[in-house]
Amino acid sequence: VQPAMLGLWSLLLLWGPATPCQGLLETVGMLARIDKDELGKAIQNSLVGGPILQNVLGSVAAVNQGLLGSGGLLGGGGLLGHGGVFGTVEELSGLKTEELTLPKESLKLLPGSGVQLNLHTKVGMHCPGPLRGLLQLAAEVNMTSRVALGVSSRGTPILILKRCSTLLGHISLFSGLLPTSLFGVVEQMLSKVFPGLLCPVVDSVLGVVNELLGAVLSLVPLALGSLEFSLATLPLISNQYIELDINPIVKSVAGDIIDFPKSPAPAKVPPKEDHTSQVTVPLYLFNTMFGLLQTNGALNMDITPELVPSNVPLTTTDLAALLPEALGKLPLHQHLLLSLRVKEAPTVTLNNKKALVSLPANIHVLFYVPQGTPESLFELNSVMTLCAQLTPLATKLHVSLCLEWLGVKVVSSFTHAFDESRLEEWLSHVVRVVYAPKLNVALDVGIPLPKVLNISFSNSVLEVIENAVVLTVAS
């Protein structure tokens, strides 16, 4: 069994004095609550496979490479190797790591003050130098770092190393020969080496985590526009999670900032359970997405026979069976054209575990005259109530619509008045088969979710509350 040393690195991450709000989303932003387990995973992953640390710590498969490896600070030619700090101590030349267990983290959030993070590692060193036998050493190290969390100039959360110090613990000799007089020299030299060796490791860890935190600020596509995230306020901390109030900035295709009306009522965000992370998507983003589609004409459609499958009736003969009085002496077997125009922004309702979209539309029914232009039959005002099916994916909230109800009212007719209710079933069928699929294509890009520590929400639990949608994923 190879000897090893147990080091305890303790980092104190200083946060602001505030604590998370009481659950009211007063602004229009997204509320992200990141569980402490996710921060721990990000730190652990940066140590194991982060590209920045790969050449610092080395890997389990090649523990004698990198900063602590045979060619690094503890290896031959390094600070403790031949020609290094111990170059004058011939007996210790060539001291290098023999075994390195990558650090395992454990952290504790301190409400209103910071985070305490412990990194545990085991390192064994040996020296095959001129001493008789294989010299094997072990030491204990405690490192304390102070790190501040703030907001970068780009508007993202960032960890900044403020102070770093190390405390060398007990040194043990497991095998080989080492004069007692050299123990003091070993202790003195290791005390000088470890700050320069370990503090850059902490800085590198923070660099990897900051890259993940920086992904919050990203420009991602939205239906006929884009969405950009930034922090609206300083990050807050509780005993279980970090809270980020993220401001979504919606832009048109041309890059202009879109500012649709906000919901006057705040969303009451439910409590977060332990070992879960949570993102709240406000009603504002739903209304903004549909507002963008409406102002760009993406909700309008001309429904012609070429677009309609054979099982959808779209001729004057079909219409005469429903409303003979509305056609008068119009020839039968003529094709119909439905010109659907949405002149007002749809209204989205989020409440009672259901998402509904109310879409007001003007429907102009025309018929084709052979070798001529379409002529008007009648014009209707309609209100469609569509149920929104919300599906969480890894980085977005997918939205698809299906018709629940359609009501119409006659605005004008080329003949006399008629009972428009007899048209509702026919029009509902056309909307379900032709119009709703067009809407779903336009909505396919979904509502982007903020990228925080690479959390995937594909397996999250979705809850529709009043004026918001909450996604909760286990850590």
Write the layout of secondary structure elements.
Layout: E1 5-14, E2 24-25, E3 30-35, H1 36-49, H2 54-57, E4 96-110, E5 114-127, E6 135-151, E7 157-175, H3 180-214, E8 219-222, E9 225-231, E10 236-237, E11 241-252, E12 267-268, E13 276-282, H4 283-295, E14 301-303, H5 316-322, H6 324-327, E15 336-341, E16 347-351, E17 354-367, E18 375-392, E19 396-413, H7 424-442, E20 447-448, E21 461-465, E22 468-474
Parallel strand pairs: 1-6
Antiparallel strand pairs: 1-5, 2-12, 3-11, 3-13, 4-5, 5-6, 6-7, 8-9, 9-11, 10-11, 13-22, 14-15, 15-17, 16-17, 17-18, 18-19, 19-20, 21-22
Helix pairs in contact: 1-3
Return the structural class: alpha+beta
Gyration radius, rounded = 33 Å
User: How is the CATH topology of the largest domain named?
Assistant: Bactericidal permeability-increasing protein, domain 2
CATH homologous superfamily caption of the largest domain? Bactericidal permeability-increasing protein, domain 2
Topology pattern, helix = H, strand = E: EEEHHEEEEHEEEEEEHEHHEEEEEHEEE
Helix content: 10-25%
CATH class of the largest domain: Alpha Beta
Any idea what the shape is?
rod-shaped
Number of domains: 2
State the major sheet.
8 strands, antiparallel
Number of helices: 7
DSSP strand (E) fraction?
35-45%
Termini separation (Å)?
Answer: 35 Å
CATH architecture of the largest domain: Super Roll
Give average pLDDT, whole number: 77
